[in-house]
Specification:
The chain is an alpha+beta fold. It is built from 24 helices and 13 strands. It is 49% helix and 9% strand. The radius of gyration is 31 Å and the shape is globular. It holds the Pfam family F-box-like.
Length: 614
């Protein structure tokens, strides 16, 4: 990280003065040729502090270490190699100033990340929690680079820093992607690439992944080149071979058919692309970069890929928002014809099979009206892609944060900001999660202005949201649980221990406990707690489970895990700062709430696992 001191380097006895002094033969550093001097000063064992001291020694070395020169550029490259991509023209860049700016951005990033645990331990980061990040006085890519440095720290330490760095980076990148999406939607429709739209959706739902239009386009271009090779063997004079991508439109139907045949050969025979029938409802099928990696997808994602390649080879296919199964259409008659029988319909999910109108109806098992065979815009294609993700987000059972549902709602409302149905769904979701009550009120106010008939549902949510805000104001700080209290004497396990559930077999880590079950009567009844020998009158533990869920487990159902291992839970860093290899160490905020658990955990671990090795 930027705050960590760099290697002090071999300045030698006497500090920087020794750098310019002559050796026993009378040859000093300043007597060396310029190129050799630069080579020495660019050595990776020297740190920024060394270069700063050397440049203060004499005029010759000051000139060698000038801010815009090779030495500081190399220092910047060695320290932050991933940032050089932001400098298309390096002439005139003050690398010393860039180094200072990146260093200061790193310090600021660390300060903000460190503050998040204390500020937001008891709640989700609120909407205005990122306000100080949005007003940063440094380049955003410097700030993001430091966050990536934190996330890429090796080892099992710094878990809390990584947890909040990830949240901040997630927010920053999504904000930038939303801005790009809105700019995309404002363009004329003929400048809205279907592939770019698919990439924007992919990026928003996977903001921490390295996804960019350039790399996705390069992979599509590679497939297109393979199609050209096949096409060349069939027709060496085909017009699409003599032009660059997208520069020609082939009018002859037979020449177009040759392109589509070559595409089917490459995509489905050589590269083995196929529709994912076995795991259709996996969200990865909707992300274009995953479609290219896994070579499988759903009808709409495979159609975007198919359409893009065809258009690059001069065949103008069009998207068709067919119910239950997205299709493409290929004109066989007069261009722009409104007769649905002038088109052949292509099923990219079904290995590029070409269908008649009647066969399209067989595909979904019922008759549809002509309007469903019409072409749709890029915005409508994105709407359907996001709608698929929305439905998947509603189905998610293990992700208790409903991240996919939240992301897809953001995307949908970016395209249709006044859609009352989705605004209400967003308000209900935030209300259910107990997060961002102020934003819930803003959404409800917007809904009421758009559709006054919603006043009943809006009024109910407003009332309960205001009650939530009032309860939050009344909170007087964290509850501290001392094990020495008489009422806690039956609590056997402590924070940070890796446990196993006796009945269900899952591995988990304890992050909280109560001396008795604190859930309501309905939960106790639904979970059949009274069937346990000790019922609800025994300690219960909050645990993070390896499947990503959070559960509330009875003491009699838990046992020490004989083979403790890391628990891959997304919230692990919210509560713990380090995994020792046997147990977790509570972070500062959790330790405040359970001040006597750390020593007990260490004693328990030493007793259980050291005795097992003897």
């Amino acid at each position: 990280m930027a705050a960590a001191a760099e290697g002090q380097g071999p300045a030698g006895p006497g500090g920087p003065r020794g750098a310019a002094e002559a050796d026993a033969d009378g040859m000093g550093l300043t007597d060396l040729p310029g190129e050799l001097l630069e080579l020495i000063l660019c050595c990776d064992v020297l740190g920024a502090a060394d270069i700063g001291r050397v440049s203060c020694t004499c005029r010759r070395l000051r000139e060698a270490c000038q801010p815009r020169g090779k030495v500081w550029r190399e220092r910047f490259r060695l320290r932050w190699p991933s940032l050089l991509k932001y400098y298309s023209h390096t002439d005139g860049v003050s690398w010393l100033e860039e180094y200072k700016a990146r260093h200061n951005a790193g310090l600021e990033a660390q300060r903000i990340v460190a503050s998040f645990s204390k500020r937001f331990f008891s709640e989700h980061v609120p909407c205005d929690g990122f306000s100080d990040i949005e007003t940063l006085g440094c380049p955003s890519h410097f700030f993001e680079d430091e966050l990536m440095c934190i996330l890429n720290m090796e080892g099992r330490k710094g878990l809390t820093w990584k947890y909040y760095a990830k949240k901040i980076l997630y927010f920053l990148r999504q904000q930038n992607i939303l801005k790009n999406l809105k700019e995309y939607l404002q363009r004329p429709t003929d400048r809205q690439s279907f592939l770019e739209g698919a990439v924007l959706i992919d990026q928003y739902c996977n903001p921490l992944s390295d996804i960019c239009l350039k790399s996705v386009q390069a992979q599509v271009d590679d497939i297109t080149d393979k199609v050209r090779k096949v096409l060349r063997t069939k027709n060496p004079r085909h017009p699409s071979l003599a032009s660059k991508a997208g520069e020609v439109v082939i009018p002859e139907v037979e020449l177009q058919r040759q392109v589509l045949d070559a595409m089917n050969c490459v995509l489905y025979e050589q590269l083995k692309y196929k529709g994912n029938e076995l795991d259709y409802y996996n969200s990865l099928n909707s992300y274009i970069h995953q479609v290219l990696i896994r070579r499988t997808g759903i009808p709409i994602s495979l159609s975007v890929l198919y359409l893009t390649i065809a258009r690059q080879l001069g065949v103008k296919l069009e998207p068709v928002n067919f119910p239950s199964h997205f299709l493409l259409r290929w004109c066989q008659g007069k261009e722009g014809s409104t007769d649905i029988f002038d088109y052949t319909y292509i099923d990219a999910f079904g290995k590029g099979k070409q269908l008649t109108v009647k066969e399209c109806e067989y595909l979904i098992g019922h008759h549809v009206t002509e309007e469903f065979y019409g072409v749709v815009t890029s915005k409508e294609v994105l709407q359907r892609m996001v709608g698929n993700l929305l439905n998947l987000g509603k189905r998610e059972s293990t992700d208790q944060s409903y991240q996919l549902l939240r992301d897809s709602l953001d995307l949908y409302l970016a395209m249709y900001p006044d859609n009352v149905q989705h605004l209400m769904l967003q308000a209900r979701l935030y209300f259910h999660l107990g997060i961002w009550p102020e934003k819930v009120l803003d959404i409800l106010q917007h809904i009421q202005a758009l559709d006054p008939s919603q006043h009943g549902a809006v009024g109910y949510l407003v009332q309960h949201t205001l009650e939530h805000i009032e309860r939050r104001k009344e909170e007087v700080g964290p509850e501290v649980k001392h094990r020495s209290d008489e009422k806690h004497k039956e609590v056997c396990f402590s924070i940070g221990l890796i446990m196993k559930h006796k009945r269900y077999g899952y591995n988990c880590v304890i992050y909280g406990w109560d001396p008795a079950c604190m859930m309501g009567h309905e939960w106790i009844r639904n979970m059949n707690v009274h069937s346990l020998p000790h019922g609800p009158h025994q300690p219960f533990y909050n645990v993070l489970v390896e499947d990503g869920s959070c559960r509330y487990a009875a003491q009699e159902n838990l046992e020490y895990n004989s083979e403790p291992r890391e628990i891959p839970h997304p919230d692990i860093g919210r509560y713990f700062s380090e995994f020792t290899g046997i147990h977790y160490l509570a972070n500062t905020e959790l330790e405040i709430r359970y001040p006597e658990d750390l020593e007990l955990t260490r004693a328990t671990v030493q007793k259980i696992y050291s005795s097992g090795k003897e």
